[in-house]
Write a structure and sequence with these properties.
mainly alpha, Heme Oxygenase, Chain A, 3 domains, two-stranded antiparallel sheet, 70% helix
Length: 434
């Protein structure tokens, strides 16, 4: 039987509110909120919660939009997306290079890993998480002025996620509530949803208690500092090197529009965090640097990013690091032999002259408009073939999956892609067999 109050059957939303009231109240007692109200909350705590909430939203929003259960997808709506707002807030704070809080990052990672697993094993749990996250937007009108006063912020600066447009927000909540309340659910399924909501409240409470108060030794630059989805892998502990790494990721990203078209803002975050990790390698012996770079090259190539991109990013990274801290140029340049090794590995199968010829033919075939939209495409295709010949079996297929998709490109483009790949393979084959 479904829950009832005074003999009246509760709607799903009423049941969620009743069953999570205690957990919700506990969350609000976290010292984080008291410090915020008293203008005593450190900036690391506020930015840290933005990073953690973004990581949680990545999992929840992706799981909601692609859930195998139609009922979840019927509740999810594009106007519930918060990722663009969270990314806008974090972009505002980027110039300050705010440190992470290690314990809070650990709590956030545990939460995202658990949510990701549960979204596969028990998809209806997603509805419980949506209830918690959607409900939090109703508190924005209370939190936004506190944040603005605590950190001297104006308008949407650093507070886009907290934006609450009054009547429109209440209308969206009513629409969302109606979608939830009209779901066909068994008693056990309703229990599963309310349990998931309580579990997320508990994880959020643990997160906010880890965010404040904190010990000074908890502060560190972690990958999450520039990409909340990247976790705790090493990044430079010098803010100048971290900023240079971000610039290198951005420059490489904009040089190859393919990045943005295929991977979006999420890909930019990983371009930055990958560059930051690469910046930590230069103190190691050359053989170890080469091993790590080759490993990353294989991983990226299998995901649709030929080793050419990693080579170029390493070269840009060295220049950005040396520009930021000129006295360390000799150290940073220890990364260049690894970049050169990536180039040499591809040149075993396709020379620079062959690659340039293939690229020029591709540009001629697709015409000036598409060449301008996606420069260097012929070069990327040739690089993928060379990676494939070098042992990365998925290098071509992972790139072709997107490059030859008729949803994105016209027939002439797709024909040029296939012809370029075929010609590159034909030219590389004799060396691959040798």
């Amino acid at each position: 039987m479904q829950a009832s109050l005074f003999g009246q059957q509760l709607t799903l939303m009423e049941e969620l509110k009743a069953s999570t009231s205690t957990a919700h109240a506990r969350l609000q007692t976290a010292p984080f909120f008291q410090a915020l109200a008293g203008c005593q909350l450190p900036l690391e705590s506020y930015v840290g919660q933005l990073r953690a909430i973004l990581a949680i939203h990545v999992v929840v929003e992706q799981a909601s939009a692609h859930c195998v259960d139609d009922r979840v997808r019927s509740v999810w709506s594009a106007d519930m997306r918060k990722l663009p707002l969270l990314r806008k807030d974090l972009q505002y704070f980027e110039p300050r290079t705010v440190a992470d809080l290690k314990e809070a990052v650990d709590v956030a990672l545990q939460a995202t890993n658990a949510l990701r697993q549960q979204s596969i094993e028990a998809p209806l749990a997603i509805l419980g998480w949506l209830y918690v996250l959607e409900g939090s937007t109703l508190c924005a009108s209370v939190l936004q002025p506190l944040v603005a006063r605590a950190f001297l912020l104006r308008g949407d600066d650093g507070m886009a996620y907290l934006r609450n447009d009054g009547a429109a927000a209440r209308y969206r909540w009513a629409e969302y509530s109606q979608r939830m309340n009209t779901l066909a659910l068994e008693t056990g399924e309703r229990a599963q949803i309310t349990q998931a909501a309580n579990e997320l409240f508990a994880r959020l409470e643990a997160l906010f208690r880890a965010l404040y108060p904190f010990q000074q030794e908890s502060k560190a630059y972690l990958a999450a500092s520039i990409n909340p989805e990247a976790g705790r892998h090493p990044v430079p502990d010098d803010a100048r090197e971290l900023q240079a790494s971000v610039r290198a990721g951005d420059i490489c990203w904009h040089r190859f529009p393919y990045f943005a078209a295929r991977y979006g803002e999420r890909g930019l975050g990983f371009a930055r965090s990958d560059a930051a990790w690469q910046a930590t390698l230069y103190p190691y012996p050359p053989a170890q640097v080469l091993q790590q770079v080759q490993w990353l090259g294989r991983v990226l190539s299998a995901r649709g990013m030929p080793t050419l991109l990693l080579q170029v990013q390493l070269e840009i990274l060295v220049e950005e690091l040396a520009s930021a801290i000129p006295e360390r140029r000799a150290g940073y340049e220890k990364l260049l032999p690894a970049a050169a090794a990536l180039h040499a590995a591809r040149s075993r199968f396709l020379t620079d002259a062959q690659t340039q010829e293939l690229a020029a033919a591709f540009d001629l075939a697709v015409g000036p408009e598409w060449r301008a939209r996606f420069p260097h495409t012929g070069t990327l295709l040739s690089a993928a073939v060379a990676d494939e010949c070098g042992g990365c079996e998925k290098a071509v297929d992972s790139l072709r999956t997107w490059m030859a998709d008729p949803r994105h490109f016209p027939a002439a483009w797709i024909d040029a892609v296939e012809l370029t790949l075929a010609q590159a393979r034909q030219q590389a084959a004799p060396k691959a067999k040798a």
